[in-house]
Design a protein that fits this description.
Blueprint lengths: L3 H29 L9 H28 L20 H22 L6 H9 L1 H15 L6 H35 L4 H13 L7
Bound molecules: protoporphyrin IX containing FE.
Length: about 210
């Protein structure tokens, strides 16, 4: 099956996906950093993060299915999950595939979160940065419109937003670490490690 509609839908879902995925990552960082004010309580940040994550997954599934269903270019179903062997734009397509695979692992571990060690869940969750980056580079490399002005603005804004959020997070962790170092932490080495873990890990490790 092929039609210009499928192609437009594939491109449209790709562009919207980059924006929604970016918002998901930024809100995830904010939820981890506990940016809490009376007007912006943490359950709002976390609720939005989870809601947008679900929308990202649906968009990603639609985007990949549309790419496979549109027979104008030859992309087999398995090439949406295996990052080798594609004939159409193999390198750029593989980056999209890697993004999809990483996202699948992050979603699976998040659904099983209560049954996993918190640290393991958190380390796997960090690979979301990799999934997001692979998806953005894939879109830039393979996209028909990616060098057009409005598309460049979206890409630069998304990269800037995640870079700023990640930087703010690193600074917050470093400041927290130096503060707990100065005060001697709450109860020696173990206390400092626990305080640091609470800063790094969303929900303070609570399930
Ligand atoms: C997180 C993962 C992904 C993101 C963020 C993403 C994003 C994008 C973006 C932004 C575009 C450019 C649209 C345009 O400017 O025309 C695009 C194009 C495309 N994507 Fe993805 N994508 C992802 C995963 C995938 C996967 C898994 C596949 C494989 C089935 C795929 C197949 C394609 C194809 C074939 C195009 C080319 C459309 C065209 O001809 O312009 N993408 N993607």
């Amino acid at each position: 099956m092929t039609s210009p509609l499928l192609w437009y839908l594939n491109r449209g879902t790709g562009i919207v996906l980059v924006v929604v995925f970016t918002l998901t990552v930024v809100l995830g960082v904010l939820a981890t950093g506990r940016s809490v004010t009376p007007w912006w309580p943490r359950f709002v940040t976390q609720g939005l993060h989870r809601g947008l994550a679900a929308v990202s997954v649906l968009l990603l599934a639609a985007h990949a299915v549309l790419a496979v269903v549109d027979e104008f270019v030859d992309i087999r179903w398995w090439q949406a999950v295996v990052p080798f062997g594609a004939t159409y734009q193999p390198f750029w397509l593989a980056l999209g595939t890697v993004a999809l695979d990483l996202t699948a692992v992050v979603v699976a571990t998040s659904l099983a979160r209560t049954r996993l060690p918190h640290r393991l869940w958190f380390l796997v969750h960090l690979t979301t940065y990799g999934a997001w980056a692979a998806g953005v580079v894939h879109g830039f490399g393979i996209g028909t419109d990616s060098r057009v002005g409005w598309s460049l603005v979206i890409t630069v804004a998304c990269v800037g937003a995640v870079a700023l959020a990640a930087l703010a997070r690193v600074v917050a962790v470093l400041v927290g670490r130096s503060r707990s170092g100065r005060t001697g932490g709450s109860g020696g080495r173990g206390g400092r490690a626990a305080a640091h873990a609470r800063q790094l890990v969303p929900d303070g490790g609570a399930r």
